[in-house]
Amino acid sequence: MLSQRARYAIRAMFNVAPRAEPVSAARIAAEEAIPRKFLEAILADLKKAGLVESSRGALGGYRLARPGDEISFADVLRVVDGPLALAPCASRTAYRQCDDCRDVETCETRRTLLAVRDATAAILEGRHFGPSGDERPAACAMPPQDARVDS
Amino acid sequence: MLSQRARYAIRAMFNVAPRAEPVSAARIAAEEAIPRKFLEAILADLKKAGLVESSRGALGGYRLARPGDEISFADVLRVVDGPLALAPCASRTAYRQCDDCRDVETCETRRTLLAVRDATAAILEGRHFGPSGDERPAACAMPPQDARVDS
DNA sequence: TGAATTCCTATCAGATCGGTAGGAATTAAA
DNA sequence: TTTAATTCCTACCGATCTGATAGGAATTCA
C-alpha cells in the first residue's frame, strides 16, 4: 500500500508540473486538500531528492527541477515510500541479503519477488508528470480476468 | 514491503507443503527459525483463510488444506498482508473510492496503479507451493536493465 | 517596513508491528 | 487413567511508523 504521504506527493507533483510560475505550498494545499504543514514536509523531501526546486520569500514557491516527462511515478514513490521491492533481497540498489538466506542465487521466493519488482518498476517508470499527458500504462499489464477474485 | 509475518508465512507454507504427516508449529518454528508463539498466530490466520488444516492433541499439527499447486503466493500474502494493490481504488475486491476522487473512470493515477496490481497479481498467482516446484516466475517480468538504478 | 513565503525543530496521539505470556482444551499413547 | 504433546484463546507490551500540528526563524519581494 502507498502511504498517504505518497498519494499527496503524486497529487502535489501533478499540481506543480503544468505551471509556468512557482506555486506556494499554501496554494497547492488548498487546491489539493492536503494539510499545509504536512505538505511542506513532503515538498522538502521532494526538494532534497532533486525533483522540485524552491524559491523563498514573497512570490516564492515550488517548481519542477526538470521537465515533467523526465520525472516518473517511480522517482516520487521511492523518495517518499522507499524501495519499490517487496523485500530487501529483491531490491536492485537497496539490496540486503536475508539473515537466514540459504542460497541467494537459487532462492525461488526471491526470484519471484524480483519479477514483481521488475514489472512494478517498468510500469511506474513509464508514467510521468509530462506536459504531454503520458503513454498508456503498461506493456506489462494483463487484461483483467473475469473470475479473478482478489485485490 | 512484505511484513515479517508474510515472510514467515511463506516459509512456513514451504515447510508444510511437502509433508505427508501433520507437522507441529513447534517443529516448523525450530526448522525455520521463527518465534513459536508468533508462528502459531500466523498459522491460525492461514487456517481461518482455509489454506491449512489442523489437528489437535499429541501427533497433531498442520497440513495443507488442498494440494500445494492450488495455493499461490498471492493467496498467502493476501491473508497476512491484505490486498496486493497499492491503493484501495486500485484493488479489484477491496475496492474503495478515494474520498477526493474527481473521476474514477478517467483517473490516470488509478489506471497506473491498476496496471501495477494486475502485473503483480499475475506473477504472484503463478507461483505455487508445488510439489512440482513451479514454473519460472514470470510472463510479465522484464529482463533487468543494466543502467537501472533503483529498488 | 510589511507581507508572503520557505525552512527548521519539536511534539504528539494513534495505529501497526513483532513478539511474549500463560493457560485452557483436546488428543494419542503409555 | 495418567501423561505428554499439541492446538487454541486471550491478553499484553515496547518500539516504531504514520499522519499530522505548532511555533517561529530566515528570506525575499513590493
From TrEMBL, chains A, B:
Gene3D superfamilies: Winged helix-like DNA-binding domain superfamily/Winged helix DNA-binding domain (1.10.10.10)
InterPro entries: TR_Rrf2-type_CS, Tscrpt_reg_Rrf2, WH-like_DNA-bd_sf, WH_DNA-bd_sf
GO cellular component entries: cytosol
MF-aspect GO terms: DNA binding; DNA-binding transcription factor activity
Pfam families the record matches: Rrf2
Domain of life the protein comes from: Bacteria
PROSITE patterns xrefs: HTH_RRF2_1, HTH_RRF2_2
Biased composition (Basic and acidic residues): 127-137
Keyword DNA-binding: yes
Keywords: DNA-binding
Chain intervals for the UniProt region annotation (Disordered): 127-151
PANTHER family linked to this entry: HTH-TYPE TRANSCRIPTIONAL REGULATOR ISCR, WINGED HELIX-TURN-HELIX TRANSCRIPTIONAL REGULATOR, RRF2 FAMILY
Protein name according to UniProt: Rrf2 family transcriptional regulator
